[in-house]
Model the fold of this input.
Amino acid sequence: MAFDIDMIKKVYAEMPARVDKAREITGKPLTLAEKILYSHLWDGTPGKAFTRGKDYVDFAPDRIACQDATAQMALLQFMQAGKDKVAVPTTVHCDHLIQAKNGATADLQSAMNTSNEVFNFLESVSDKYGIGFWKPGAGIIHQVVLENYAFPGGMMIGTDSHTVNAGGLGMVAIGVGGADAVDVMAGMAWELKFPKLIGVKLTGKLSGWTAPKDVILKVAEILTVKGGTGAIVEYFGDGAVNLSCTGKGTICNMGAEIGATTSTFGYDDSMERYLRATERADIADAANEVKDYLTGDPEVYANPEQYFDQVIEINLDTLMPLINGPFTPDLATEVGSMNEKATENDWPLKVEWGLIGSCTNSSYEDLSRASSVAQQAIDKKLVTKAEFGINPGSEKVRYTTERDGILGVFENVNAKIFTNACGPCIGQWARYSDPKNAPKNSIIHSFNRNFAKRADGNPNTHAFVASPEMVAAIAIAGRLDFNPMTDKLINEDGEEVMLDEPTGWELPPKGFEVKDDGYLAPQEDGTGVVVKVAEDSDRLQLLEPFTPIGTDLSNAKLLIKAFGKCTTDHISMAGPWLRFRGHLDNIANNTLIGAVNAFNKQTNFVKNQLDGEYGAVPATARAYKAAGIPSIVVGDHNYGEGSSREHAAMQPRHLGVVAVIVKSFARIHETNLKKQGMLGLTFANEADYDLIQEDDTFNFVDLAKFSPDVPLTIEITHADGTKDTIKANHTYNAAQIEWFHKGSALNKIKEDNAA
Done:
């Protein structure tokens, strides 16, 4: 029996009439994404057609999922909302706060010892407010969601950018900041600009060494890290039908790396097989009754150029395995072409680690195919040159793969089996005692992100992304330029051998099995549950409402002008900083320490205009705040790319930053800034970025007239007394401007609930 089956049946009962009405008012056939969007309007039955990329629309998501690092801040905010229980089904998953070091058992115990205060808080607040709780070790949020909660045609939001993984089961699943999740938990509408649509037509069928991972690695190459911004990517075609459900999940998961709002596939036989294999036959039966509404209309897929804003076509028959990286997930190299490119760019060809797992590639199918490669190392007497690390996606997958001997294969090649958790993928990897001074090296993994310092904290680690089976092959060979389709290896007997093509199972032949999946259901009535946060805790801190910035904003100082890529990892690092995700003041000490200062090309070294000295970004911001002086952050393109973490907005806000002015934003981060009552602005003229000088002071000339679709005027005073006046665009609507006036979206929620 599926979780929340009555809710799912209600969605299916309402969907046909709503989709039919949407077809009528739009006057055209609909994509799957449009069917799900129009059937989840806050007002119910559609009443108007929306303009893609322009109209802000209120939606009613079916459910919410939160991972432990972001759940802390989300639930601390929800505790202020004045509600007794969450309004929609919600779950919390403890997967980020478990560091990979010695292996699953020891690492899980270490996490319990060091983060028990946080886990207890999350368990108790979940129990109190009717939230399902998945214990540490239960699995990685997105794989657990795919196995238990995702359903075709549904809409969900999650406080992690890779919530999009659930698109593999035909959902519109979107990563958001915690403040967005709080809105929905509190029974309010969730607002989103109606997305544009990108269609990806897949033809043919994967074979040999090519895997679902290679599809999204190719799409990332085509669209780049910002090419999907503001759009839903919808996959279709016979090639899409030929993919497994978990393979679809892999493709949707990494859609976050192209900036896409989400990605999705239409309901098909592979999804039905997966639902039944994961003991959700009741969902499969219900979905089959409305299956025509759970995929795009035939006319759309027959003539995609008429219905999508952009169309890409990929032939799976000819798609080659890819390796993407380093330092960005969209830099693609075909396997077999790496030697020349690596030599040209001075990338280390020797590979020290091969890491398989994360929310992207930790399914039964992934591990079985990778283990078929690892087994060949044993059978063909090869000595594995790189170290192996494995993170199973869930306890269900771990238990089943152990039962079926798959994990044993990895153990026989001396792999470390880490906890069912994010581990190295989120920077929770104790690889070095001093990562800042660690040597230049290369690793390869099946994760989704490979930004500098992401996995192990070492800026000199060149991380490359590939399919699990390719990771296994390259780890065995120990070289980045190894091509298993053409290259031979020398075994222990001095013989030349080649690796055979990987094999595996879409689903376990003997079915899934698990003894304890790690789930704790909340009490029916949690009013008696006490949520305790110690006053002297350095891990948790109750929140104080932000004070409105106000419209009389002048004499604001430049805090930092960020140069080049500035992701949420640069703004609020993960890794060891995850321990402070529930303590705003403590985690604020990592604010923008990874951003490169445009004036000296150094990190965490900016000029304090009060004394002329250079120092750390957080300390400089605190100095301005203590003096009652607001500060400004300036950035480049796609500012805030990466994770959904709202800390990247809350921390600057806490430290007195009032505005972030950039060439362009990543979608989630722009929304997070708005939610925290800040100004998220873009240069009307991108060249104005070059006008910003190190000692600049900013005056907002017409902020008192802040209104939708009207640019703001900013006067910039330079150190020599000269001035420049620039225009800054924004995407605030009337409701979001009200958040600014109230100090934050949460302040507005509290006010409305108190009324």
